[in-house]
Design brief:
The chain has 341 residues and is of the alpha/beta class. The chain is built from 13 helices and 14 strands. The longest helix is centred in the middle third of the chain and has 19 residues.
C-alpha cells in the first residue's frame, strides 16, 4: 500500500494542500470538551511526568481545526497521513491506525466543495487499481427539511437501510423524504427530479449546481439520499466512497460546519474526508495471497534480452514478477509463463 499512499499524498500536494504534522499526544481535557465530535468514543489515556492526564490522539480533524486561523476569504487546506489510536471498526479493539485524508476550512464556497469531491473521486481511482469505484453523494441540507426532530436518529437509520416500508409508518414523515430515498442515482436528470420532489428550492438548486460541475466523472458518481451521517456533526454535502470487491466504504466525508463553529470559529465552514487506510491494508493482505502475480520460468539457452523483455511487459501492467529457472516449492502465483529458446 506504500505506493498507493504516496500517490495520494502527491495528489493532495498538486492541489495545494499542505502536509499537517501532529504530535501523538493531546491533553485529555481537549477530547472531553469535544467528545460528541469523536468518531471513536474510546480514548487511550496516560499520566505524564507532571501529573497531567494525556491522551493518545484518536482523531486528526479536531487537532487541525484547533490550530487554524480565521481569516476572511482564506481557505486553509491540509492533508494528513498520521497514526491515530482508536477502536478499530473491524475487530472492536484499540489499534494504531493510519489515517489519511484532507481538510479544507475557513472560506468554503461551492468551488471548494467541488474540489474536495473531485479529490475524493481521484483518491478512489488511485486506490481502486483498475477496479470499479463509485462515490455516493447526498445533501443533509435537503434531507433535514423533511426529517422531524423527534425520532430523527431512528429515521436516519431507516433511510440508510432504504427501509421504505418502515419509514411510511411514521405519520410525521414527509412524503418528499420517501421520494428522495427512492430517487434514481441519475446525474443527468437530477435538477428536474429534485424540482418534482422537494419544496426546498435553494438547497436543491445549490446541490444540483455542485453535482453538475462533476458530470465529467459520469458513472463514478451516484446521487444517493440514503447516504446519511450524524446531523449533530455534519451538514450539507456528505459522501461515501466504495471500491468493487470491498463490502464497506473506504472513504467518507462531508461538510462539518457545525463542528468548526462549535469550536469557536463562528464565521468559518469546513469540508473534508478520510480514507480508511486500515481497511485497505487488511484487504490488500487478503487479496495478496500470491508470492508474485507472474512466475516466469525459462530454458537454459534463452537470451537475457528475451527474459528482460518479458519481465518488462508485465511490470508495465503493474504486476509483480518473479523469474526462476524452475518452479520453487510452495510458490504461489496467478500466472505461469514459460519461455522457450
Amino acid at each position: 500500500m506504500s505506493a498507493t499512499f504516496e500517490n495520494l499524498r502527491r495528489l493532495y500536494k498538486n492541489y495545494g494542500y499542505s502536509r499537517y504534522k501532529m504530535g501523538k499526544f493531546e491533553e485529555y481535557d481537549f477530547y472531553t470538551k469535544n467528545k460528541q465530535s469523536l468518531i471513536s468514543q474510546g480514548v487511550l489515556t496516560f499520566t505524564d511526568v507532571n501529573g497531567k492526564l494525556m491522551a493518545l490522539k484518536p482523531d486528526v480533524t479536531l487537532s487541525i481545526i484547533k490550530h487554524i486561523r480565521e481569516i476572511e476569504g482564506l481557505t486553509q487546506k491540509f492533508f494528513y497521513d498520521e497514526k491515530v489510536y482508536r477502536i478499530s471498526k473491524n475487530d472492536n479493539a484499540f489499534k494504531e491506525i493510519t489515517q489519511i485524508g484532507i481538510e479544507a476550512a475557513g472560506y468554503v464556497n461551492d468551488y471548494v466543495i467541488c474540489e474536495v469531491l473531485e479529490l475524493a473521486l481521484k483518491s478512489l481511482e488511485i486506490m481502486a487499481h483498475g477496479r470499479d469505484y463509485v462515490l455516493d453523494v447526498s445533501d443533509l441540507g435537503i434531507l433535514k427539511n423533511f426529517i422531524p426532530e423527534d425520532n430523527s436518529h431512528e429515521i436516519l437509520n431507516l433511510i440508510a437501510a432504504k427501509n421504505i416500508d418502515e419509514l411510511k409508518k411514521f405519520p410525521d414523515v414527509n412524503k418528499n423524504l420517501i421520494e428522495l430515498v427512492k430517487l434514481k442515482p441519475d446525474i443527468e436528470n437530477l435538477e428536474a427530479d429534485l424540482k418534482n420532489i422537494t419544496g426546498c428550492k435553494i438547497e436543491s438548486e445549490k446541490f444540483s449546481d455542485i453535482i453538475n460541475n462533476l458530470k465529467s466523472f459520469g458513472r463514478n458518481i451516484n446521487i444517493d439520499f440514503s447516504t446519511v451521517n450524524d446531523m449533530n456533526y455534519y451538514n450539507g454535502i456528505i459522501f461515501k466512497g466504495y471500491i468493487s470487491g470491498i463490502p464497506e466504504c473506504v472513504l467518507s466525508g462531508g461538510q462539518y460546519d457545525i463542528l468548526i463553529q462549535r469550536m469557536g470559529y463562528k464565521n468559518s465552514r469546513a469540508i473534508g474526508f478520510a480514507v480508511y487506510a486500515d481497511l485497505l491494508n487488511k484487504i490488500g493482505t487478503q487479496e495478496n495471497n500470491y508470492d508474485a502475480d507472474v512466475l516466469i520460468i525459462y530454458d537454459e539457452n534463452i537470451s537475457v534480452s528475451k527474459i528482460t523483455a518479458c519481465v518488462q511487459k508485465y511490470i508495465n501492467q503493474n504486476l509483480s514478477v518473479c523469474v526462476q529457472k524452475i518452479i520453487p516449492d510452495n510458490f504461489k502465483y496467478r500466472e505461469l509463463v514459460k519461455l522457450n529458446a
